[in-house]
# Entry
Amino acid sequence: MFGRILVANRGEIALRVIRAAHELDCEAVVVYSQGDAGAPWLDAADESICIGPAPSAQSYLDIPRILAAAEVADVEAIHPGYGFLAENAHFAEICAGCNIVFIGPPAEVINSCGDKAAAKALAKSAGVPVVPGSEGAVADADEAARIAEEIGYPVMIKASAGGGGRGMRMARNEITLRSGFTAAQNEAGAAFGDDTVYVEKFVENPRHIEIQVLAGADGEVVHLGERDCSVQRRHQKLVEEAPSPALTPEIREAMGAAAVAYAKAAGYRNAGTVEFLLDKDGEFYFIELNARIQVEHPVTEMVTGIDLVRWQLRVAAGEKLDFTQADVQLRGHAMEFRINAENPERGFAPAPGKIDHLVLPGGRGVRIDSHVAAGYEIPRHYDSMIAKLICYGDDRDEAMRIARRALRELRVEGRGIATTAGLHQRILAQADFVNGNFDTSFLERHLDV
# Structure
């Protein structure tokens, strides 16, 4: 195991990695921006190093500053967390050139998985079902229109090098396709520095299912079951659960096998997530592989008993998995609720401020992953998530009962602060959610309630 690592991230995931490192008797150094000076999670690290001003471009995304901190701290490896540089192949390459281990997949794998068109082609070659669409990048709106006529409307225009719903447009006819094509290109170029897009069939009202994979240093791959991430707004996930109430054992086995096949074809190492769409007929289609730890990884940890972040460090240090696919058993049910400093009643507008009063729930079946404390000023510069509430029960009904109780206990109070906790309470009161009868359109259909 490494003796000392650098955590190149902030907030909840930085604290999560620090804890995992300490449990492996490894020291953890964390970087921080001036906007995060004095933040609660810094106290958990063995050392903290300021790397620049609050804007991410001048701190958490500044590769030379992070590598300078790594050199000063004399670390052996860097964990990028999620977001920021987590899926930046260039950063992974530079780490390797500096003899620093990047705790994640190899740079070439990040490159191949990050290009959605190339990833789709690899999936097809591995026998993994894909959504019908273009074979690769689409040059212009005329080519997009020809493809749309072949596969049939509606279609999705998607950025090849993107995520989080940016660079995506849905078109139901040629008019909206042409305008959407230009808009998707412009948005992709601004967000990712790459305006390459591709076209695929739009699967109406699907479930969003992802399979957690873990690949050892020797390339052996196992999957750890699925997570249902269908409750989302504008492609941003709000509630995740494991296992999915929509999957039969047969679909779970087939989807898991497909995820493993893709990961092996990609030469994957470390923890990753293969994402699928599941239609109403039980057919599933590959979307992409996220080459990093996911925000929602705790629900998988709860139902499998496998610590994913600890395994990230172990694999990066050269270890093989000490269990096989047959050893993986799903027990009970887990749900994760993202607590964001946003106001759902005002279009999910950011609602940061100073936390004057904080009560985090506890008790049986409750896990809180959070980086905040009373007196903490929620910054405006970063993602609005301030906590993840994870609830576990022997079955889905018990998990929901525990979640309702935990959400009632949660208090995040301060001037100007609003959170998504109340929205989650209303979601848990919806009959369709309670019955497991929901898809990616659930929130839009019920938002007025």
Remarks:
- The mean pLDDT is 95.
- Residues 174-192 form the longest helix (19 residues).
